[in-house]
C-alpha cells in the first residue's frame, strides 16, 4: 500500500488537498495518508519550519502531497528556503516536472491557439543552478555593498536531468526535446549544458532536438506554444518558463507539478503550482484541479499509470463541461472528479 | 550637430538602418553619420570583432545607431560578448531601455488586450548581474565537471538604474514602478535590490511602487500586461521579460531598445531588439519600424524630445494604416515614415 505524507499547508492548501485525496481514494483504495502540519501557521505558532525529526519521518514515505505553504505575514525566504527548497534538495528531487496543456473547455489568453493544441512538459532541473544558495554580501548597507549569487552546475546534475527529459520524450508522440539556456552569455554553464545535451541526444537518435536561448523561448511560449513537446532547462529558467507555460494554458490555477527523485531513493513531492491564496482561503471556492492533477503525477510516479490516466481524464471531463459563469465550489468539483475517476 | 556612429551590421541590419537614417535626416537635418563596419561579415573577413582603435573612435560620438549583428556561421558568444556586451560595458550603458506598446493597428497575440492598452517600459540593468562574465569551469569534459556563473550586484550599479527608473516614472502619466526580482530565492542580490529600491522610492512619494517575483511578472505580462508602467529589473530578468513584453505587443519586429549612459560620459547605443534575420536579408521586406523607433529613443536621449515625438507619431500613423495582407517593402515604409515625421 502506498504511504503518502500529506502537507496540506496554508490558505487554500487544505481545501484543495482534501479534493486530491478524495480522487486518490477513488482510484487507489487503501492509500495510507499521514498528515504533517508545516507552513506559515506552524511557523507562527512554534517558530519551526521543518524540524529534523519531521524530515526523517517524511523520508519514510513513498511520496509527499503538498497543498500550498506561505502567507504574506512570513518574511520572504523563510518557508521557500527552509521548507520547499529544503525538501527538494534534501530528497534530491532533481526533476521538477511541469506539464502544461490547453484543455478543451479552458479559455486561454492567446487569440491564435486552440484548445488541445498545447501539450508540453517542462523538465526543470531542481537541485542546482542559482538555487544552490551560494552567494553573499559584503559591506552591507554601505555605498560599497556588493551582493553575489552563484549558479553551480555539475555534469552529474545536468546530465541526469537531461537524461530524464529524453526518456520522457521517447515515450511521447512527438519525441522532441528543446534545450533552453543562455549559452551566448552564460558561456561556462551554457557549454556544460550543451555538451551534456549533445551526449545524451546521441543515445536517442529517435528523439528530435533543438536549442533556444531563454529569451527566445519565453517569446515563443507566447507566440507559438504548440511547437514544444519536452523542454529541459535549468532551475531558474524553468521557474520562469513554467509560469509562462501556465499563463498561456489558463493560469497557474490549473498547473500541476512534481518534484521527483526518479530513482525513488527519496520520496518525490507533488504540489499545485499556485500558492496559498489567502484572499480566497476558507470560502470553498478554490479550484482543486491543479492539486488533483498533481495527484495524477504522483500516481504515475508510484507506478500506477492507469489510475493516473483516469484522474487526468476526469479533469478533462470536468473542464470540458464547465459552464463559464457558474461559480465553482471546491468540494463539489472534488466530488465530481472522484466520481468521473472512479468511472 | 549630432555626431552619430552607425553600425549597420549584418543581415537585415543595413536595410533597416538606412530607413532609420532617412527618418533622422527628416526630423534633424545635418546629423553627421559615420559608418563602422562591425559584425559577422568583418569577423569572417579579418578575424576582428571590435578593435581598440574602433572602440576609441566610437567613444568620440554622441550616440551609436546599430542595426543588427550576427550570423549562424559565427560561434555563439563571439559577437555577443566581444561586440554587443563589450560596448554596453565599455560605455557604461547601465540603463537598457525597452519600451513596449500595443500600437493601434497591430494584432497582438492576446485575446483580452486591446490596442492602446499596453504602454510599459522596462528599465533593465545593463552592466552587472550574470552578464558580468564571472564564472568558470573545472574538470571540463569529465564526470566531475562543474561550471559556475556568478551574478555580481553592487549598490552603485543597482541604485543608479533604480534611480533612472523612478525619474522616468515621475515623467509618465501613471507614475508607477514595479521592481522585479526573485528575492525569495536569490536572497543576497534580492535584498540589495529591495533595499536600494525602498531607499529611492522614499525620495519619490509621488510614484507608486510594487514588487513582483520574476516568475509572477512573466505570467502577468501575458495575462495582464496593462498593469505595468515602468518595470525595473536586473540584467538577465530584463532580457527575458522584455522579450515577453515584445511578444505580447506584436513581436520583436516592432521592439526598440536603447543602451543608455544617462550622464552622457560615453555614447549611448540604440538598436532594434530583433536580430539580423539572415533568412530574409537583402530582399527589402524587413520591417524597419523597430530601427526607426530606436532612432526615436536616440533623439530623445540627445535632447530632441519633439523630434523624437514626431518619429513616434509617424510610426503610429504607419501602423494604424497598414493593410493586413499587403506585403511590406522596407524602403517604402522608410519613405512613408520620413514623410510623416517631416510633415
Ligand atoms: C516558492 C519558490 C521557491 C518556488 C521556486 O522558485 O521554485 C516557486 O516559484 C515554484 O516555482 O515552485
Ligand atoms: C545578444 C544578447 C547578448 C542580448 C542580451 O542577452 O542582452 C540580446 O538577447 C538582447 O536582449 O539584447
TrEMBL record, chains A, B:
The EC number(s) given in the record are 1.1.1.85
| Gene3D superfamilies given in the database record | Isopropylmalate Dehydrogenase
> Which is an annotated Pfam family here?
Iso_dh
**What one GO molecular function would you report for this record?**
NAD binding
Recorded superkingdom: Bacteria
Record PROSITE patterns: IDH_IMDH
Q: Which InterPro entries match?
A: ICDH/IPMDH, IsoCit/isopropylmalate_DH_CS, IsoPropMal-DH-like_dom
Isopropylmalate dehydrogenase-like domain segment(s): 3-337
Cofactor annotation:
Mg(2+); Mn(2+)
Keyword entries, A-Z: Manganese, Metal-binding, NAD, Oxidoreductase
Per the record, the coiled-coil ranges are none
Q: What is this protein called?
A: 3-isopropylmalate dehydrogenase
Organism the protein comes from: Micromonospora costi
